[in-house]
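Please, structure for the following, as tokens.
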Amino acid sequence: MLDIVYQDDWLVAINKPAGLLVHRSPIDKHETRFALQCLRDQIGQKVFPVHRLDKPTSGVLLFALDTDTARHLSEQFSLHQVQKTYWAVVRGFTAPHGVIDHPIKDKADQCVHTSLEKTAKAALTHYQSLDHFELPYPAGEHATSRYTLLALQPQTGRKHQLRRHLKHISHPILGDTTYGDGKHNALLREHLAAWRLLLHATQLQVQHPHSQAVLTLQAALPDDFKVVLEQMYEQTQSATTRSC
């Protein structure tokens, strides 16, 4: 049963669990469960996706209930009029806040032999540090491992934008098996039993296509994400107490 966080006569939003594809995709031909079909069966009517979340990412996922509403919502996304906020845990201590302004090359362009300037598209991400953690385990030459909980606001919607942007500034998201740091991913699996990508879409702000009201849709952190944060906080506090 999907967690519905908002529903009216025109649209419905869910808190998508990590590991669930939005719809059928050649990315994972063997997958049999999809958010679109699960939600359709759950509410008993057709739904239309207006944006996407990567399979390993959890959080707010919005659907329209008719084609006209879908068209209006999709237009807001394409014009970058939707405000999106994500939480992520990344390697290292970041600056308190910053902007990542780094063009992203479409995945579909990887096999095309053209220059980066011709194929890369503008991509912009704002970030703010929410908390820092330091765990008493080495993942390299240092005796401890440092991490930051970030709030991320992508201003554009490029494929894997947040994951690629965080890698670009050398603060990859934990649990990312494509753009992440394998040593730190292994450390979290061993000591915190953290197997998921630590990226969650916490909030989505859109203008309702019919009432014109601004909707702020929120998705609570899933339990597996919260447990990791709690363990990081407790171990950081414990290490701080011992050092005092």
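Confidence is low (pLDDT under 50) at residues 109-117. The radius of gyration is 19 Å.
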